Structures are given as structure tokens and as C-alpha cells.
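lol forgot to send this yesterday, sorry. C-alpha cells for the thing we talked abt
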């Protein structure tokens, strides 16, 4: 087989032992162990939580929170709950996407009182049906936590900490930062390796900290969900694998690893390749390793980030993991490009309604 982006190295996959090792789905308990080792999973909570401000707007009571994860800038997050609600209500961690945009994080998918930044309005039009989906979900009767994560928004590296040869110049601070951060992620992964971790592990750790904070809130019911598109879908899959989240929605982030090899590696984040997991574990195995825990994966047939055949193969592999509990997994295919539009949101929210209501029963 010839691979466009491997060229004269197109015989490399056939030589690789990892490709052969991934051919057979591993036992789920073994995958869980491998994932926990790769992501260094321990139970952690945020330190020094502060309420920075509160607001009431358009039927939502909001709080801007900040906390420490032990190093670096403080994490900022928005907690959204229906105005006047007394709880307990189902809780969901809404996970922002990657997008090659790190200047902002939570602002991609949620609104506070300030006007939406123009670049975020444009992103929502392209990827989210023009919606702040976290606010839509909140108005449906959920407490929604929307945190920034390592390298995004409040947790981003300042530009002057980036080596000068990597910095992009420009009069638009946001554009210059995002162009710089695209290359800087490779350097951050090197820092992670030198410091005994990985980019994926740090992101997953911070998402688990956010989940544990949401669990601690008195107005939140016992069992929780998570949802995210693209890089947020990657985060949702890892959170599904490393926590006891009761329902997980992975949007636009599912493929076999083999299906990435021809033309679909360059555009993906280091989050997608946790430590040495790909040596013997496929990405759908990671997402499904807690079967029968409820999992919804939404696929876009014309998604330029993934090969459709690889997405269909991933769907089949997850279905195999859920063979003894077919109600636990739903895989839905939609026409269109890389997105989480209103139709997909409506379907995902209805699925969360069913699964989290059942979880509370």
C-alpha cells in the first residue's frame, strides 16, 4: 500500500509491530490498566477554589471560578446553572475543542455577560451551528462546568515564554498567539517527556480535577456526564476511560489509528496519542474500555480530519466491545464536515437526558 504522506516509507506500517498488535481488540480490563498507566491516573481535586464573580443572564446563573492544579497559572472555569434552580440537577463537564486556537478556551462553547469575541462567534458558526452549546445544555436543566485546560485560555503559556524563533509576529495579538501555539505544542510535549508525563496526561488530569469539582457541588446530582467536539471529544474519550463518569459524548474524534496513517496525522494534537498506548491499543479501545458505561459517538461522513472507512471501522470495533450491553453504546453518522451542529447537539442532549436520568434512578 502506498501512503501519500509517507512516500518512500510506505512499507513502514507493514514492518511495524504496533500495527499487528492493534489488529485484535484487547480485553477491556487490560486496556483500562494500560490507559491508567499511560495517563498516570490518581484521584485529585482542585486547590484554593475561588469564586471570582457571579451573574444572572438569559435564564442562567453563572459563576466564574478559579483554582490551582498545582503548577502554572490558575485555571478559570464557568459554572452555569438554570436560574432559580434548587437541585439536585444532572451535571455535565463541557469540554472545549482544540481548533488550532489556544488564545481562548471556554469561550468557544459558552457565554458569560461579555460580548462573544468575534473570532469565537466565527468558530461557532463554522463548528457549533452558531451556538454556545454549554448554555443550551444548561437551559435544558443541567449544571454545566466549562473549564479552560492546560495550554488554553487562562492556562495558556504567555507569548514571551515561547522561544523567540517560534514566535509569530503580527498586529493582531490573538492571531499571532494562535499561530505560535500551533508549533509550540510540539515543544510542550518535549517538556512533558522531560518532566515525566505527556500532553495527553496533563490535559486528562485537569479534566478529572474539573469533574471532581463539579461532583462536589451541592446542587449537582451524584452521577455526571461529559461532552466535547474534536479535541473536546478526545478529552471526553479519555475522561470516559479514566473516571466513573456516567455518560460520555465524543463528537468528531473517532477513528482507528491505522486509518490516520494516510494524510490524517499532521492535523491532530498530541492529546490523540497518549504515551505508548498506540503500541498495542487502538483509539476505539480507549473510548470503549469501560463498557457497558454509556457512550455516544457522533461521526461526520465528510469530516476532513478522518477517513470515513476508518470511522466506520472504529464504530464496528466499539460495537464489538459493547456486544454484551448494546444499549450502552450509540454511534450516529451525520452528513457534513467537522462539526457539532444544532441537530447533533439536540440528539446528544436527548441521549444525555435518557442516560443521566437512568443513572440517577
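and heres what i got for the seq, position by position
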Amino acid at each position: 500500500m502506498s501512503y501519500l504522506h509517507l512516500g518512500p516509507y510506505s512499507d513502514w506500517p507493514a514492518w511495524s509491530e504496533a500495527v499487528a498488535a492493534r489488529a485484535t481488540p484487547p480485553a477491556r480490563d487490560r486496556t483500562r490498566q494500560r490507559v491508567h498507566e499511560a495517563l498516570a491516573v490518581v484521584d485529585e481535586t482542585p486547590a484554593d477554589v475561588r469564586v471570582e464573580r457571579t451573574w444572572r443572564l438569559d435564564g442562567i446563573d453563572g459563576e466564574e471560578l478559579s483554582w490551582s492544579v498545582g503548577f502554572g497559572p490558575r485555571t478559570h472555569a464557568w459554572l452555569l446553572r438554570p436560574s432559580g434552580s434548587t437541585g439536585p440537577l444532572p451535571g455535565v463537564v463541557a469540554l472545549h475543542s482544540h481548533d488550532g486556537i489556544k488564545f481562548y478556551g471556554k469561550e468557544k462553547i459558552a457565554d458569560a455577560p461579555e460580548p462573544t469575541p468575534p473570532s469565537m462567534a466565527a468558530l461557532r458558526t463554522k463548528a457549533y451551528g452558531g451556538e454556545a452549546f454549554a448554555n443550551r445544555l444548561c437551559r435544558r436543566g443541567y449544571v454545566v462546568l466549562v473549564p479552560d485546560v492546560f495550554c488554553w485560555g487562562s492556562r495558556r503559556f504567555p507569548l514571551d515564554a515561547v522561544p523567540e524563533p517560534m514566535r509569530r509576529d503580527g498586529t493582531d495579538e490573538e492571531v499571532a498567539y494562535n499561530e505560535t501555539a500551533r508549533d509550540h505544542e510540539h515543544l510542550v510535549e518535549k517538556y512533558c517527556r522531560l518532566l515525566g508525563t505527556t500532553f495527553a496526561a496533563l490535559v486528562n488530569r485537569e479534566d478529572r480535577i474539573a469533574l471532581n469539582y463539579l461532583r462536589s457541588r451541592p446542587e449537582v446530582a451524584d452521577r455526571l456526564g461529559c461532552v466535547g467536539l474534536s479535541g473536546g471529544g478526545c478529552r471526553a474519550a479519555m475522561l470516559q476511560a479514566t473516571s466513573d463518569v456516567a455518560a460520555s459524548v465524543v463528537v468528531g474524534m473517532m477513528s482507528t489509528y491505522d486509518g490516520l496513517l494516510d494524510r490524517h496525522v499532521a492535523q491532530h494534537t498530541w492529546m490523540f496519542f497518549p504515551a505508548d498506548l498506540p503500541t498495542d491499543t487502538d483509539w476505539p479501545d480507549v473510548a470503549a474500555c469501560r463498557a457497558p458505561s454509556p457512550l455516544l459517538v457522533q461521526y461526520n461522513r465528510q469530516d476532513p480530519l478522518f477517513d470515513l472507512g476508518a470511522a466506520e471501522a472504529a464504530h464496528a470495533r466499539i460495537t464489538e466491545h459493547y456486544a454484551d450491553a448494546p444499549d450502552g453504546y450509540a454511534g450516529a453518522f451525520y452528513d457534513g464536515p467537522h462539526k457539532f451542529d444544532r441537530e447533533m447537539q439536540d440528539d446528544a442532549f436527548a441521549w444525555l437526558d435518557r442516560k443521566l436520568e437512568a443513572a440517577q434512578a
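The chain has a mean pLDDT of 95. anyway ping me if u want another try
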